[in-house]
Amino acid sequence: MTFRFNRASTHAANQFAVWIEDENGALVKTLFVTDFTAARRGYRQREDSVASWIRAADPETMDNEALDAISGATPRSGILEYRWDLTDQSGERVSSGIYVVKLEGTLYWSSRILYSARIDTEREEIGDVLVTRSEPENPENEDMLEEFSVVFG
Q1: If DSSP codes are grouped into helix, strand and coil, which group holds residue 151?
Q2: Cα(23)–Cα(96) distance, rounded to whole angstroms?
Q3: Which residue from 50, 42, 44 is spatially nearest to 17, judged by alpha carbons?
Q4: In angstroms, how far is CA 79 from the centroid of its own chain?
């Protein structure tokens, strides 16, 4: 999957996570989450920081090594790409079926954006990208995450 990241200059922004869920909403694998939110456990200080990923991943149950393995520094602005190798968090290959790719970003305090797209790994089909914003009337950093797309290959 790819998307454009435009690093915001405001406080309480620039946090994002990319992960895969199964069709029932259970976490399959986290591909990336920003260091502040995960490894430094910033979600304890900022409850709104990628709250959907926090609910899905439950980082309180993860040790520091596990969080360090999926997190990294907030990248520079530009086109970012993350690849899913069709494995779960433990490295085991998942069965063919329906999964949901998600990208969530904290735009400004409680204002968040969530992109999601269903993928069928057996048919190699990708559904429409859905976009939801927690505060659609709040324009602060609305262009932080843009141009989300998912492709096979």
Answers
A1: coil
A2: 11
A3: 50
A4: 15
Distances (CA, A) of 153 to 3, 5, 59, 102: 16, 22, 30, 18
Query: In 10 A of CB 4, how many CB atoms?
Result: 14
User: Dihedral sign, CA of 50, 47, 30, 117?
Assistant: negative
Structure tokens at 9: 């200059």
Tokens 């490295």 correspond to what residue?
Answer: 91
pTM, full prediction: 0.96
pLDDT tens series, the chain, 153 aa: 999 999 999 989 999 999 999 999 999 999 999 999 999 999 999 989 999 999 999 999 999 999 999 999 999 999 999 999 999 999 999 999 999 999 999 999 999 999 999 999 999 999 999 999 999 999 999 999 999 999 987
CB 114 within 8 A of CB 104: yes
Domain ranges of the chain: 2-149
